[in-house]
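Appendix B. Raw example, untouched.
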Amino acid sequence: MNEFISAGGPFMWPLLACSILIISISIEKSWFLKNRLVAPKGLSKQIKNLLENNLMTKKQTIEISSLSSLGFLLINCIKYKNLPRENLESKIEEKALEVKYNLERRLSMLGTIATISPLLGLLGTVVGMITAFTGLTESSGANPDLLAAGISQALITTAFGLLIAVPGLVLHRYFEQKITYLLITLQKEVSEFIDTINK
């Protein structure tokens, strides 16, 4: 591995950093976009039962609000339930923007890294090719083996950049779709909950 990185030249280090960032962000997004942390099943029903039986305490509201995005939105629905429907929906839309921001956090960074990785690789290749051809012109005679070795080393950065970019872009698209699905689920759950408490 060390030989591979050394062969690619100095541009391999930023590419290596990009690959570590993509892995780190992907692990984080995989964890925080789990259904049970965003929109756990049965939560709205559980909250309705607590409200109907007057069992909802301040401690429970804090716990429910902090455990999931859906809990945060539903507790805010309860908080503003005495407002007219339009005002209640407006307040919840504001809170939904906070949830959306939290869900999409670092997603743009993942897309940016996946986009710049092949460009960094290409830059490394161009610099490597320039170095290879400069060495050729300075030598007294053309050495095909030396030229081939230089080009081979130069192309390593492009290959590594693409190796990072392809899974990075796939993961970015996957997380985008996952967030869209979760936001639709949240919207549906909240809308049904508002219909129940704001009659």
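End of appendix B.
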